[in-house]
Amino acid sequence: MGKSAEKLIRSQRWFRENAFWNWTDGFFFGNGNLGSVAYAPSHLEWMINKVDVFDPTVPDSKYLTHGKVMKTLRSMQRKNSHFMGKTEAVKGGSDRKTMSAAVLRLRFWQAVGWAAQTVPKVSQNLSLFDGELEEFVDGHNLHPVLTMFAPRGSNFFCLRIRDNGSKLPHIFELLRPADETLPFPEWKTWKDAVGFCQVLPGGKGAYAVVFHTAGINCEIPMFPIESGRTFSTVKQIGDADFFLAVRTTFDSGDPLEAAFREARQGARTGFDALREEHRRWWHDFWNKSWIDFGKSHSVQRYWAFGLYTAASSFGKAPMPGLNGLFYGNSGVTAPGLSTQGYTHDQNAQIPAMPLFASNHCELLPVLADTYWNVREELKRHTRALFGCDGIYLPLCMNQLGMEYPVAGYRYTLCGSAYTGMLLARWWNFSRDREALKNRIHPLLREFVNFYMALMHKSADGMYHLDWSIPPEIFTMTRDDMATLALLKPCLETVIQGAEILNSDQEFLPRWCDLLTHYPPLARHPESGGWHGGPDIPPDHFFFGGHLLYPFFPAESEISPETAKNTLQYIEKNALERSFTDSAGQWHFDYGWSAFLNSVARMRLGSVKNSWRELERFLCLFGKENGLFSHNVNLILPSETTERNIRNSGIPCPVRANEEGTPMKSRIPESHCASPNPDAKRLAPPVFEGAAAFVFLAIEAVFQTYGGVIRLFPCVPKSFTGGFHRLMAPGAFEISARMKDGKVTEVRIHSLAGGTFTLLDPFSRRKKYLTRTLPKGKTLILKRTMSRASGNKKCDKDCRKENGRKATYG
User: Between helices 365-372 and 375-386, what is the axis angle to 10°?
Assistant: First the structure.
């Protein structure tokens, strides 16, 4: 149907005439285990990151048990979690910053200083279809071309230099990134390699980096010319291939020796053989599914880059944290970014959301393994704090499953439910029984059993959840709406899984009883929309996205009317907004909040131009390197943004804080605009941003919420384009084409057998097709054109399933 994947993806040109000078806007490539950001300050430079290179330390804190927290709350009139700051807060804060494994630099001149060669021009071309980055150096008698990629399933990346006649030397500098909190690394030199081993903070493990050269045309083998405590400089002349490997004590007893062996094996296998296998993996990835957005070139480019980012980031557990694999070191005072781990009220979950409909569930084992691999630590911590079985995912935790002590903030308890909801969605879309047995169900069992211990049947016959705090506020409530909304699909799926696998008979009766007597989700007494919880005062402040959880992402309560009421309430009262934008407009400050609201608006059709939600999100958060920032970055004159604030005002009523007193500022100043033309480029990217955009792009052409498949629901009126093998719940692969705003063909293929419901793609009336399709069968729907009174007319009788007509119900 339509374009080939290769033609479509290769046409997404990611070419930079002049490479950016800082890692914050460099081009990213990786294999989901090791990632690199390439940029060019004057020399060429790579920031090297790896999923298991991180600060493993956690500050000591005396956590209050759940029993003590509940006992304290009973004596409080204003029930908030501020009291926990007095007992659990740690000196210096709990934050742990990202750690980059290494920096690699390359210059083509030996002198540095007044006699240095004029800095050459560096251009970059990133091929998404091949998963490769090329860099072109252009100077007087200096025209090398560099090709680089990170082979799937490896701990290294490959770099090839072809000099094109230049005889200038290649001066490489391998650096341990600047960080005064670390001891100096141990260096070692081999015949064709140099490397170091670095002890991690707290002495809890180590990692090693080895840089190895190989090449038939090397005129001078690589040899060291200078070294220091945190760097080593080597020189080499002539065409060559290089292999940089990173290993850690998390998977090796001797990471330095392991890194050397892996880099040497890469050299022996050879650049060309590795490249062929690497390209095959990427070509298979892109051929599995794709979307053609027609003339919407920006949406097409960033959708493709977003999927490329997901595939380059999900490769090995633990999955990347907030900043993905594209973070960096900015010197001694800023060795990394805050924060390296996971925040479980949306930041850790959004990156996986587009994988379901994109038909890339093969990447999801990384998500599940991240938690399953550390289940013993999680279960130990759960029992220590809550005195129960199951797994509590802390709001903030590191890759080892250890909680960061964030005081009262930690009593946002929706983390296990949010992650469990993703696992439930995995089963709902894929119907993968192996994944259900080995990954989905075991984790869901632990998550659900944790909440079972916190839910008690009351006199009204319903279960009720203990006191906790909704996301982003510190006022306690029973029956936190966010947790309950996200937990319900977990409960439904764990019951279904137990019945399919014939397991968990000891838990099943109580799970079923909880589902039968599930508490209602809180509603706001004035707006009629969803509310943080029954004990949250109606005038309490709130941020802009969490109130929508029942509608999206949980989809546990598909009530368009309630969702509309909630959206209207957010648009008039949310704290997390800014009016610095163009006159008469406002925007959410943070990408996650804008994302949740945009999905709701697109599904409800509550805006005149739903397509604009895509363009708006891209304008506010998109960066030139294909990634997305966490906060808005507007490039506007300061006099314009200051005037906009004055003229637009802040139409938001005064909200109450956790103590019940009016807040001093109705909407905090956001500082999201600057006349600096590099402001967007200098903003660090986050993992969730690209995923959010991919999800929004999919929603524009393909929606499945509420059990109904909707084709092209948010595209412009004259849209021409299509998609191939997107996934609907029940493991149905859907392909469709549209021309000039009219659907011309739909193909539905069943991978597991089952029943689907499709909103009539050929009619504006709300008619539905419900069919049961056996496993392996395909249903084809076509719009045929016939002549009637000299005019073309749609003939919708040509809808056939294996030779039989399909009728609408």
Answer: 50
CATH number of 343-520: 1.50.10.10
Say which residues have a Cβ less than 8 Å from residue 41's Cβ, sequence separation at least 6: 21, 22
DSSP string, 643-705: HHHHHH-------B-TTSSBPS-SS-----EES-TTHHHHSPB-HHHHHHHHHHHHHHHEE-G
The 10s digit of each residue's pLDDT in 102-123 is 999 999 987 778 888 889 999 9
Contact present, 210 and 244 (Cβ < 8 Å): yes
The residue that leads in pLDDT, 645 or 698, is 698
Please, which pLDDT band fits residue 607 given cuts at 50, 70 and 90? low
What span, in angstroms and rounded, lies between the C-alpha atoms of 608 and 610? 6
Which residue stretches of 393-538 are H helix? 415-430, 433-435, 441-454, 481-501, 508-516
Backbone angles phi, psi at 639, to 5 degrees: -65, -30
CATH of domain 10-54+98-112+120-288: 2.70.98.50
Q: Output the pTM of the full model.
A: 0.96
CA separation for the pair 616, 609 (Å, rounded): 11
Instruction: Say if residues 769 and 808 touch (Cβ distance below 8 Å).
Output: yes
**Shortest CA distance to 293 belongs to which of 745, 719, 617, 605?**
719
Q: Which residue has the tokens 């916190």?
A: 454
Return the pLDDT at 619: 95
Q: Omega of the bond prior to 318 within 30 degrees of 0, cis?
A: yes
Predicted local confidence at residue 791, as pLDDT: 36
Q: Is 385 helix (H, G, I), strand (E, B) or coil?
A: helix
User: Could you state, in order of their start, the residue ranges of all structural domains in the chain?
Assistant: 10-54+98-112+120-288, 343-520, 536-696, 704-805
- Report phi then psi at 312, rounded to 5: -80, -5
Residue 701: closest CA among 285, 358, 428, 307: 358
Spatial CB neighbours of 426, under 8 Å, sequence gap ≥ 6:
356, 361, 364, 432, 435, 440
**What is the chain's alpha carbon radius of gyration, rounded to the nearest angstrom?**
27
d(CA 20, CA 677): 13
Crossing angle of helices 365-372 and 441-454, rounded to 10°: 50
Distance CA 704, CA 45 (A): 44
* E-only strand ranges, 31-155: 34-39, 44-50, 102-107, 121-127, 132-138, 145-149
The architecture that CATH gives domain 704-805 is: Sandwich (2.60)
For the segment 38-64, what is each residue's pLDDT rounded down to a tens digit?
Answer: 999 999 999 999 999 999 999 999 999
